[in-house]
Model the fold of this input.
Amino acid sequence: MKHTLSFSRIAFSAALISTGIIGTGFSNAFADETIRDLAKERHRFIGTILNSEWFNDDIEPEFEEIHKTQFNVVVAENEMKFDATEPNENEFNFTKGDKMVEYALANGIRVRGHALAWHSQVAGWVSSNYAGQKDKLLAVLKNHIEKVVGHYKGQVAEWDVVNEAVNDDYNADWRSTNSVWYEGIGAEFLDSAFVWAHAADPNAELCYNDYSLEWGLREGSKASFVVEQVKRWKANGIPITCVGTQTHIEIAHETTPQNVRALAKALAELDVTLNITELDIGFPKGSAGKLTDADYAKQGHLYRQFMDVFLEEPNMGEFVIWGLTDAHSWLDEQQGKTEGLLYDKNYKPKPAYDSIMVSLKAHPASEVKSPYPESLFKDRMDCQTGNCGDSTIAIKPAAIATHLSMQIAGRTLSIAGANAAKVDVFDVQGRPVFSAKNVKGFVKLQDLAEGLYMIRVREGSASLTKRIAIR
Ligand code: 9MR
Done:
């Protein structure tokens, strides 16, 4: 059934736009529910980064409010990287990382650690003091991993142990230039990094993370190369538990969701989880200011396809977007791309947000498998220490409490708690199929064909959305 629900060619958001429910400026059709609630019910983690501006207390208040309300996994944009955590040899700075972990614990959010062994953002002293000296570099990397993973033991649930170690050639191989680790140590730096990370925190999940893995499993591709390495690591007892596909894509990259599905299936055979770790779906920078409703709908459609794949593949665990708002995004700053995230520059949810919600709702919790133990999602306990108090409840007021309730019996929809409700019914592809105003008590839905629908009942600021079956 899941597959019938997910073949939609039309994003929910597209339908809302075409009917004028969402116009310029966007509006959120799911004001009473959050991504976080639906992710938790499905025993999955959906999240986004804390931008560097958050760490520097230089970000709008909406950022944190939305972040902790909508998401249940977090990663630091730059603050856990080598140059941030060990700026001078054996002098560690955990101030910013600690700030994130405290925030995450207080709000019941899982933490990803990014990244331990990467060729980029390595502190300058590593190359200047030790370039090409294998024994020294091994000692430096070992010490770094032991200290950083050791410091966050039990608090960081998962590490990107190695990041971007594969080159960009058509015939993929290890990145052999501009990498102090590979050039000085050779490919064994990867194996060693996993072993040291595991020794420092045996309970942490350990990932290999890279970009362009969404380009498919053809011979010579990065994805195929990584799958081969994972096979080797597993055969040799190297403690890898997950692969991260960064997935920085563009609006034109329509085949990528199904490539991610194929990668998930290949990794499932190796008992390894696949996480989407840095998703963004950008438009070319030149299109800024000229984007149409149809463009945003297309973006929503792609986001939805990724979410469908994520929910349908049982060995996918985390879905992380590389940014929350278009106001703060590496796409504009560094990529010549723009507007790739779920919230616009004014913190308004875009159609992509609704598309993600629709995908979540089209995949009921009973049908979504999770690679994680149920205990991770118990109340008061989606934080690792169990010391989250009632924070998961405390943040809920942002989601409007509603006195409305509804029930379907045959083709009669009964509504309690409303005097003049507006009822909208959408099919699972998000197309509006029925609408009625001023409903009190009940409304008959006799013209609907058998099938699954999304019903939304609204009165004033109260709103309730449910998925129903008409038989
Ligand atoms: O978003 C990060 C940006 O602020 C940094 O300047 C940049 C430096 O490399 O890194 C960005 O994050 C990258 C992530 O750490 C690894 N994958 C690619 C991300 C986007 O460049």
Notes: The chain has two domains: 33-377, 405-470.
